[in-house]
Structure formats: C-alpha cells, structure tokens
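name: query_chain
kind: protein
chains: 1
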Amino acid sequence: MYTSDSARKTSGSILILVLLAGLLMGGLLMFYLNYRQISGLSTQVSELKTKVSVLEGTQNATYQNITILQNGTSLAQLYNNVRDSVVLITGTTNDGSVQGSGFAYQYQGMNLILTNHHVVEDTTSLAVTFSNGRGYAANIVGQDPYADLAVVTVPDAPASEFKPVTIVESSALTVGEEVIAIGNPYGLVGSMTTGVVSAVGRSITEDATDRYAIANVIQTNTAINPGNSGGLLLNSLGNVVGITTAIVSDSQGLGFAIPSSTILREIDSLVKTGAYRGHSYLGVSGTDMSYSLAQESGDSVTYGWKLALVNSTGPSAGKLQVNDIIIALNGQTIRHNDDLASYLEQHTLPGNTITVTVMRGSTETQVDVTLGIRPSPT
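structure:
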C-alpha cells in the first residue's frame, strides 16, 4: 500500500510527541520519587536533631546534678553524716559564762572532744551537750594557746554519745576549694554554712598568745559567727580540715580556722602531757617590708620581715641585728610574717638549726640560728 510523504511526516511527529510525553512523564515521576525521598530524609534529620537535643539536655542536667553534689554526697547528706558529731560547750568563768562549739574525735581508743583554747580558757566549770540534748560535765585534758587548741573529756557520757569524725591533712587544701562549717553560732545548735578557702598560710594573733602568731591558718569566706569557735571546717568529702576559730570584726566573709595538720601534729602531746611544746622560737620581732617602707628607710629590698627587736636572751642574740631584713629561711623565700611563721610552724622544731638569710644594709648575709622553745604565755 502506498503512503504519502505527508502521512509519514504526521506519523513521525506523533511518535516524537509520544516519546517526549513519555520522557516528561518519566521526569515528573522521578522528580516526585526524589522529592518524596528527600522529604523523608529531611523528616529523619529533623527527628535525629530532636533526639540529639534531648540527649544534650539530659547530659546538661546530669552535669548540673554532679556539680550540686559533693563527690557523690549532697550537702544535706553530708550534714546528716556529721551533725551528731558537733557538740555545744558551755562553761563558767570568774567573769561570767562562755559558749562555743566542739566535735567528737577518737584517738587511740579514747573518746574526746576537740575545741578552741579560747572557748575553755579560765573556766571554773565546763559542760558538753550532745545533739540529742543530753549534757554532761567535762574536763580539760590538754590545751595549747599558741595554736588555739584544747582537748576535753566527758567521763560520764556513754560511748554511744560520741560520733567521731575523720580528720585529714589540710596541707593539700587549695584556694577556691569548697569548705563547710558546722557549729553553734549564737547558740543556734548545728548550723551549717558553706564557702571556699580564700587563702592559706595566714597568721593571726589572739590575746592568749601574748601577740605571738598562730601560724599557717586557713582563711575562708564561709560565714563564721560568735559561737562557731571550736566547730568543724569540712572539705567536700565531709572530712575535717580545720577548727573554726576567729573572725575579723565588721568584715564581710573573712573567717579563720586552725588547720587540721596542726591538730594531727599536736594531739598526742595534748592528750599525754596536757600541753604542746613544739613551737619554735626565733626571739625577734619586726614588721613586714613594703615598697613604701623601703623608700622611706632606704632599704634595698621591698619584701621580707624587718627586725625591730632582738631578744637579748633569745636564740638570735649576737647573730641577728635590729634592721636586718629576713628574706629566706633554709633557702625558702620569706615575703612577710605569714611566710616566716608558717615556715617555722610547719618545718622546724625547737633545737633545730636553721640558716637565716638577711639583708644587712645592702649586703646579703647568711646566719645560722639554733631555735629555742617559745616561752609560755603570761
């Protein structure tokens, strides 16, 4: 059969249109399928983002919970662990009555109460009241005014009354470390406050020390008030690192505690002899150097401890001189009296010979001094 050229052209055009329509439909179908796939992937990504966000929130909540806890123990749990260890100490003196804090400690099988010397000083009668309200007469068995420490026994109290604490070395304490104080401020039994170590190696003086320094003291911004004296200073594990002892009048967050390293060093002597005779004595007095003092006096150094008096019968007589500036002990730099007192307390005993480096005029000189025993307070 004969087909005209126009018919063949028409058939070819139709075939091309069909092919184009097929390609277009295929493209639309592929676009639709790809769109569905992309949309599904977007939904999955969105769901994954939501899950990740939830996980991140959980992690943040866990982190916050850890920071609230004290190495696995909350402050409330820590308080409950030691609250029954804290006691109220009351006494009478010729001038009236005294009140302070103390805590239970066991040493070589003996149940003891530890507190500050100034809490029990000059008392004619003494009593200890435990957290359950039961009170008993108490006796002083040892005290050291130069460290503001005292050890008390409660002979009539049954062993069940004592909840001894754990005392650890305070030498590892660092500035910024969290600490907790528990005591009886203003007679408010068992009060807890928190803060941080704001300085270490301080020295303070009290009336009972004849102006000799109580050395190597912990400074804290933990709130301490009258009646806290003799109470606990704890680290974040609930172990004793100090005894709260003093505040600066009219200060905001400036309190002090006797370090536990002093307790551990003295406890044996206090219990067995009633006193501690291990405070080294250099036999001098002086003042901290400063830039302004150096400018005024013409001294060549702006740090150290400048001697104002050398005791004529003390261990430094004939060796150190007035206006000498102590700048080192056994090679350890001395910047001020805090450094001097802390070094003598931590690293020396009476009878030790130390090398004292001084600036004498413009000359650096080394002098060997054999330390004496600090005289008893008057």
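note: Confidence is low (pLDDT under 50) at residues 1-10, 54-70.
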